[in-house]
Write a structure and sequence with these properties.
Elements: H1 3-17, E1 21-28, E2 33-37, H2 44-64, E3 73-76, E4 80-87, E5 91-98, H3 104-123
Antiparallel strand pairs: 1-2, 1-5, 3-4, 4-5
Helix pairs in contact: 1-3
Protein backbone atom coordinates (compact mmCIF):
# COMPACT_ATOMS: atom_id res chain seq x y z
CA UNK A 1 0.00 0.00 0.00
CA UNK A 2 1.47 3.40 -0.94
CA UNK A 3 1.66 6.33 1.49
CA UNK A 4 -1.39 8.21 0.19
CA UNK A 5 -3.49 5.02 0.29
CA UNK A 6 -2.37 4.41 3.88
CA UNK A 7 -3.38 7.96 4.88
CA UNK A 8 -6.76 7.58 3.17
CA UNK A 9 -7.36 4.24 4.90
CA UNK A 10 -6.57 5.67 8.33
CA UNK A 11 -8.89 8.64 7.72
CA UNK A 12 -11.67 6.26 6.58
CA UNK A 13 -11.23 4.22 9.75
CA UNK A 14 -11.47 7.40 11.86
CA UNK A 15 -14.70 8.35 10.06
CA UNK A 16 -16.11 4.87 10.70
CA UNK A 17 -15.21 4.99 14.40
CA UNK A 18 -16.52 8.53 14.86
CA UNK A 19 -19.61 9.38 12.77
CA UNK A 20 -19.14 12.99 13.92
CA UNK A 21 -16.30 13.28 11.38
CA UNK A 22 -17.91 14.46 8.13
CA UNK A 23 -14.74 15.08 6.09
CA UNK A 24 -10.99 15.55 6.25
CA UNK A 25 -8.01 17.01 4.42
CA UNK A 26 -4.27 16.59 4.68
CA UNK A 27 -2.39 19.69 3.57
CA UNK A 28 1.13 21.04 3.58
CA UNK A 29 2.19 23.84 5.91
CA UNK A 30 2.05 26.20 2.94
CA UNK A 31 -1.64 25.40 2.35
CA UNK A 32 -1.60 22.90 -0.51
CA UNK A 33 -4.28 20.24 -0.04
CA UNK A 34 -2.69 16.88 -0.88
CA UNK A 35 -5.40 14.39 0.09
CA UNK A 36 -9.01 15.05 1.01
CA UNK A 37 -12.52 13.77 1.38
CA UNK A 38 -14.44 16.99 1.94
CA UNK A 39 -18.10 17.81 2.49
CA UNK A 40 -19.88 19.35 -0.52
CA UNK A 41 -19.18 23.00 -1.37
CA UNK A 42 -15.87 23.19 0.52
CA UNK A 43 -13.25 25.19 -1.38
CA UNK A 44 -9.92 23.32 -1.13
CA UNK A 45 -7.85 26.44 -1.78
CA UNK A 46 -9.63 28.42 0.91
CA UNK A 47 -9.34 25.52 3.35
CA UNK A 48 -5.61 25.20 2.68
CA UNK A 49 -5.05 28.92 3.15
CA UNK A 50 -7.05 28.97 6.38
CA UNK A 51 -5.32 25.91 7.84
CA UNK A 52 -1.83 27.17 6.99
CA UNK A 53 -2.56 30.63 8.40
CA UNK A 54 -4.09 29.32 11.63
CA UNK A 55 -1.27 26.90 12.42
CA UNK A 56 1.41 29.46 11.50
CA UNK A 57 -0.14 32.20 13.63
CA UNK A 58 -0.67 29.83 16.54
CA UNK A 59 2.95 28.64 16.41
CA UNK A 60 4.25 32.22 16.20
CA UNK A 61 2.05 33.22 19.14
CA UNK A 62 3.39 30.30 21.19
CA UNK A 63 7.00 31.16 20.27
CA UNK A 64 6.52 34.76 21.37
CA UNK A 65 5.49 33.54 24.81
CA UNK A 66 8.04 30.70 25.04
CA UNK A 67 5.12 28.27 25.15
CA UNK A 68 4.77 24.83 23.63
CA UNK A 69 3.73 24.31 20.02
CA UNK A 70 0.15 24.09 18.79
CA UNK A 71 -1.71 20.93 19.75
CA UNK A 72 -4.91 21.68 17.83
CA UNK A 73 -7.19 24.52 16.80
CA UNK A 74 -10.97 24.17 16.95
CA UNK A 75 -13.31 26.60 15.16
CA UNK A 76 -17.06 26.34 15.00
CA UNK A 77 -19.86 27.66 12.85
CA UNK A 78 -23.51 26.76 12.38
CA UNK A 79 -22.73 23.59 10.33
CA UNK A 80 -19.37 22.20 11.45
CA UNK A 81 -16.66 22.27 14.03
CA UNK A 82 -13.35 22.60 12.17
CA UNK A 83 -10.44 20.84 13.83
CA UNK A 84 -6.91 21.68 12.60
CA UNK A 85 -3.97 19.63 13.88
CA UNK A 86 -0.27 19.78 13.02
CA UNK A 87 0.73 16.61 11.16
CA UNK A 88 4.43 16.32 11.84
CA UNK A 89 6.66 19.22 10.96
CA UNK A 90 5.40 19.44 7.39
CA UNK A 91 1.64 18.96 7.39
CA UNK A 92 -1.75 19.88 8.75
CA UNK A 93 -4.75 17.60 9.21
CA UNK A 94 -8.16 19.30 9.00
CA UNK A 95 -11.33 17.54 10.12
CA UNK A 96 -14.93 18.60 9.61
CA UNK A 97 -17.03 17.55 12.59
CA UNK A 98 -20.81 17.58 12.76
CA UNK A 99 -21.82 20.49 14.98
CA UNK A 100 -24.24 18.23 16.88
CA UNK A 101 -21.64 15.52 17.49
CA UNK A 102 -19.27 14.99 20.39
CA UNK A 103 -15.99 16.52 19.23
CA UNK A 104 -14.20 15.74 22.50
CA UNK A 105 -14.07 12.04 21.69
CA UNK A 106 -12.49 12.76 18.30
CA UNK A 107 -9.60 14.96 19.46
CA UNK A 108 -7.35 12.27 20.99
CA UNK A 109 -7.82 9.86 18.09
CA UNK A 110 -7.25 12.73 15.63
CA UNK A 111 -4.01 13.76 17.31
CA UNK A 112 -2.70 10.22 16.87
CA UNK A 113 -3.82 10.15 13.22
CA UNK A 114 -2.17 13.52 12.53
CA UNK A 115 1.07 12.25 14.05
CA UNK A 116 1.04 9.14 11.84
CA UNK A 117 0.23 11.20 8.74
CA UNK A 118 3.06 13.56 9.64
CA UNK A 119 5.45 10.62 9.75
CA UNK A 120 4.27 9.56 6.30
CA UNK A 121 4.85 13.10 4.99
CA UNK A 122 8.35 13.20 6.43
CA UNK A 123 9.22 9.92 4.71
CA UNK A 124 8.06 11.21 1.30
Amino acid sequence: MDKSAACRQEARELMQRFPTVQGWALMSRDGIVMLAQLPPAVDEDLLGTLGAALISLSDRWAESRDACTTEYILLGDCRYRHLFLPAGGEGILALFLDVKGDWNSVVAASCMLAERMGQVLELA
